[in-house]
Amino acid sequence: MILHRYFATKFLLIYMSILAVFFVLLTMVDLIEQVQRYSTRDLAFFDLFKLTLLNVPEGLYNIMPLVMILSTVTLFLGLARSSELVVTRAAGRSALSSLMAPLVVACAIGVLAVAMLNPIVAATTKRYHTLSTTYRTGSTDVLSISAEGLWLRQGGPEGQTVIRATRANPNGTVLFDVTFISYAADDGPNRRIHAKSAQLRDGEWQLQGARVWPLGSGVNPQEGVLDRQNMVLPSTLTQERIQDSFGNPNSVHFWDLPTYIQQLRAAGFSARRHAVWYHMEMARPLFLMAMVLISAAFTMRHVRFARSSISVLAAILLGFGLYYIRNFAQALGENGQIPVVLAAWAPPVASIFLATGLVLHMEDG
């Protein structure tokens, strides 16, 4: 028990140290990128640094498997150089027994990442995209899915427009049973429009079966109501911006994903991408454990300086290969070519079996 606690503490300290190093590196690189991206905009350094701090958590969250590989390599190379592995084996501990503490720590890190870090990453990612859109275009386009339907907001020099629709087509360019409420730039609502459908074209909404009510102080909406079979409204929205608003599952935290998936389906959108991400997040602890096993298979031995660099390189390359296969399976699942559960769970489970086999082969021959 004391030995397991020692390995777990050492592994956790190494992991946190490498994670801190990557945080500093990602912050510096992203800050330079933000400065270049907004070089033509009159933005203060504080605004650029705020964008960087909002964007870095997502990158750090995505490279957790790489950090796990490097942490395991560092742990076992250090134990081998200090001959602690030799002492552990002489005491009768098998390779799998020595791996129990790092595996438990990796599983705990994965569970905490999904349960606690994922909501933080979702909030910062959503805020980053909102601010970056505001800085680039000067307007905020926000999409929200709720039990009442689909909500959109578009902005421009003439003011803001709130859009609510009961449902939409899968790509979000056609809205059904839709209501537009326009707000003047420096005043309250000035017009309400209800239409049977609205189709997004280049820079405009094309409405079918529209009814218009004027709004404002001292105005009776029912007296000025107008019926129009066809109507055109200017829009700052595009299909890409609508899909980016709800298409990125990173912006929805793990605990809200089941409800959000149901609401997406009720609104007419495809929720396959979010369903794949939800299952992949549940499988994240298994994948991190697989990274520990892969790294240990190549580095959990007595150090021979001529071969240690080759072993480290092999562990990193195999880890990257499994990470690529995992992302490839995710793409296949999102496109509907393989089932959602298979896309999310097959790579980590297969990685666990492959890594365990490698550990046993490297240890026992």
Describe the structure using short key phrases.
365 residues; 2 domains; membrane; 7 strands; single chain; alpha+beta; LptG; seven-stranded antiparallel sheet; 61% helix; elongated; transmembrane; 18% strand
Question: Your description of this structure?
Answer:
It is a single chain. With 365 residues, this protein is α+β, with helices and mostly antiparallel strands. It has 2 domains: 2-136 and 256-364, no CATH class; 142-236. 61% of the residues lie in helices and 18% in strands. It contains 12 helices and 7 strands. A 7-stranded antiparallel sheet has the order 1-2-3-4-5-6-7. Strand 4 (174-184) and strand 5 (189-201) form a beta hairpin. The mean pLDDT is 83. One of its GO terms (cellular component) is ATP-binding cassette (ABC) transporter complex. This is LPS export ABC transporter permease LptG. It is found in: Cell membrane. Its main location: membrane.
Brief digest:
With 365 residues, this protein is an alpha+beta fold. It has helices at residues 2-37, 45-62, 64-81, 84-90, 95-98, 100-137, 239-247, 257-267, 272-282, 284-299, 305-334, 340-364; strands at residues 142-146, 149-156, 159-168, 174-184, 189-201, 204-214, 226-234. A 7-stranded antiparallel sheet has the order 1-2-3-4-5-6-7.
How many domains make up the coordinates? 2
Q: Could you report the average pLDDT, rounded to the nearest whole number?
A: 83
Shape descriptor reads elongated
Largest sheet: 7 strands, antiparallel
Class from helix and strand fractions: alpha+beta
Classify the helix fraction into a percent range: 55-70%
Q: Which series of helices and strands comes N to C?
A: HHHHHHEEEEEEEHHHHHH
- Uncertain ranges: none
**Relative strand content:** 15-25%
Number of strands: 7
